[in-house]
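Repro:
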Amino acid sequence: MATAERVKQDMPPKGGYRKINFARVFPKPFASSRALVGTYIVCTGVGWYLYLLNDRLVDKYQVESRSSLIAITPLLDAEADREYLKQLRKNRETEEELMKNVKGWKTGTLYGEPIYKTVDKKELIEPGLNEYYVHAPDKVLYDRVYWHKYL
């Protein structure tokens, strides 16, 4: 068993402990405010320069894209009109084929009576969607009517 004579007590070092520093110490700044403002100005200038270069390039691409669209639009319109007239002719031929055995049936009329009496025979009367797609599969009409569901 240890006796009180053998235990050595902890004492402060000679001269005492050093003073506790509790004063507020600010960290050293990363850079001076002038250096930070200068860096900001240089980076902003370089960014604007690169933006303007890219903007010119984008403008050039947009002009080219619009020009090509303007150039090809009449061709696309003509093709769409051609397909429209081909479908009307196909509808007319199908009607003739279906009604060839019906007596008194004249294609484009209702039992020999013109549907529109005041319209010139040379004038095109555009059919509605149901009449236009009458001989097409149902899916084709639904795709045309509900095209926005595929967006």
